[in-house]
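From the shared-data thread, chain only:
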Amino acid sequence: MKASTRLYAWLKLLTVLHLVEQLIFGMQDLHALKNMIAAYDRCFSNPGSATVTLLTIGAGLASLAIYCILRGGWARLIASIVLGLPAIGELHHLVETAHAGRYTSGTVTAVPSIICGVLFLRALVRECRGDKLADGPAALEPAVAL
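Structure, as tokens:
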């Protein structure tokens, strides 16, 4: 298994733990998120249409990411980078904690998420070097080198 694949799995586990931490200790970002959703809903005459449009865009982007990963090569690299960047974006929890001068929810799991995100992107770059981006499906790579 490639290092990037293993690190991406860890990122997903850390994402779940991050959400659990925020559910337990409070979600300060929830009000900002609700305001963004309300502003988005106001762009449509029907809130149902707004929801279906948002779900369609989300499903389309998820399908595109999966296709790029399965295609392999540069498409996999670009999709993986886009999927890995939000982990580094968790840096905002450290900034919030430093600004508040106390613990804010999400900080404990943000630290390993940021570290894992940096390691994930570094592994992608290493895999990219030396013509390791072969054309063809990533799923056809041998699992174990003999």
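The CA atoms of residues 56 and 62 lie 10 Å apart.
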